[in-house]
Specification:
Structural class: alpha+beta
Number of domains: 1
Order of helices and strands: HHEEEHEHH
Number of strands: 4
Shape: globular
Helix content: 25-40%
Distance between the termini: 27 Å
CATH superfamily: VSR Endonuclease
Number of helices: 5
Strand order of the largest sheet: 1-2-3-4
Strand content: 15-25%
Mean pLDDT: 88
Radius of gyration: 15 Å
Low-confidence stretches: 121-131
Amino acid sequence: MTVIFNRQSDKEKRRQLRNSMPETEAILWSRLQRKTLRGYKFRRQYGIGRYVVDFYCPKLKLAIEIDGDSHFTDQAQEYDREREAYIQSLGLKVIRFTNLEVRNNLNQVLQVIEGFMTPPFSLNGENTSPS
């Protein structure tokens, strides 16, 4: 069986990333941790395959990335596209915010995230949200 989430071989890498979190990640984490956003549990520096995402909510199957200046080079954008395609191939959603969005519009960032928390409804009217 192949391990996709939080591979043991990447444990130290994830620990280092958590211990050296950039300011904007710390700002968003302060609003996501301890189920403070509508009761959903988020994890930080979560391993998905060979990648580590900034935040992940298993119940929503939602990965959240905060992009700093290093993400705006051509090479970094290509890497991010490949990474996002892999994550999406697992049936997960990915949303991205810039450092500026987190710093200057945190409430709007939180509203976007909350938009993924709206329970989906099927055509027959049944609530299909996870319990």
